[in-house]
Write a structure and sequence with these properties.
Strand 6, helix 5 (166-183) and strand 7 form a beta-alpha-beta unit. The chain is globular. 38% of the residues lie in helices and 23% in strands. The protein is built from seven helices and nine strands. It has helices at residues 46-53, 92-102, 107-120, 136-149, 166-183, 194-200, 234-260, and strands spanning 2-13, 19-30, 35-39, 61-67, 77-80, 154-158, 186-190, 203-207, 214-219. The longest helix is centred in the C-terminal third of the chain and has 27 residues, at 234-260. It is α/β, with parallel strands linked by helices and 261 residues long.
Length: 261
């Protein structure tokens, strides 16, 4: 399934009634089985863009298309949020089954899908635990398992590991890449961390400061499967430097504007 973002713009009105342009004419295509990261300065509209793709927000202009054959009962997208967004009164198994229940799947199929994604995400043996009994990393695994269970055409991830400590974050990045290798699930991944984006993605879409415009799409010419050792390779360093030069120029422009006011 291809995701085609065509001339997408989003305008809000703030509490004073003033018009705020969050996104301006974003066009981007995510190919089947591709891992694309979206990166930009704080407030550039990364999460807004993801929410429009997910159907949680309407666009002010432009459109999002899901192009390709879509199996019955398979949603075009599912989202993993920065906050774990788990139901505290439901067990791990029940949290993962929630989307399947909403879709009306029979109990046997729900149980089979849930077992499969729990094993895939390393949650086997934790089925009867409640969220308060889990670490942050384990809670986010539940969020990922819940999204994968509905078998979306594309997985949307909004800074899913930013609330985790550095060590857990690194492990979760490696686990997500392992899941991607097994499933070849199309992923659109929002992050503010340049090294994380380059390590994970096939391409990195770089947005400007508000209003968010697409500055460039930087390819990452690293072989898969990815390993930590690749972070010392010239291709990795070159992609990081290219993205940083784009982001840094935005910060400098904002500083210059502030000095002129």
């Amino acid at each position: 399934m291809r995701v085609i973002i065509d001339g997408l713009s989003k305008t809000f009105r703030d509490r004073s009634g003033h018009e705020v342009v969050a996104l301006e004419r974003i066009s981007l295509t995510v190919e089947p089985e591709e891992f694309v990261a979206i990166l930009g300065p704080s407030g550039c509209g990364k999460s807004t863009l993801l929410n429009i793709i997910a159907g949680l927000l309407p666009a002010s202009a432009g459109q999002v298309f899901f192009e390709g054959e879509q199996r019955p009962g398979r949603p075009p997208s599912a989202t993993v949020f920065q906050e774990f967004a788990l139901f505290p009164w439901r067990t791990v198994r029940a949290n993962v089954e929630f989307g399947l229940e909403e879709a009306g799947l029979p109990a046997a199929e729900r149980a089979e899908r849930t077992r499969r994604v729990l094993d895939m995400t390393g949650l086997g043996g934790f089925e009867t635990r409640f969220p308060h009994q889990l670490s942050g990393g384990m809670c986010q695994r539940v969020g990922i398992a819940r999204a994968l269970a509905v078998e979306p055409a594309v997985l949307l991830m909004d800074e899913p590991f930013s609330a985790l400590d550095a060590q857990t974050r690194t492990l979760m990045m490696e686990e997500l890449l392992g899941i991607w290798e097994r499933t070849r699930q199309s992923i659109l991944y929002v992050t503010h961390n340049i090294q994380e984006a380059v390590f994970m993605a096939d391409r990195v879409a770089v947005l400007s400061r508000r209003p968010g415009r697409l500055l460039d799409v930087v390819p990452v010419p690293l072989k898969r499967p990815r390993t930590e050792a690749q972070q010392g390779e010239a291709a990795f360093v070159g992609a990081v430097d290219r993205i940083w030069s784009l982001i840094k120029s935005q910060a400098r422009a904002a500083l210059a504007e502030g000095q002129q006011e």
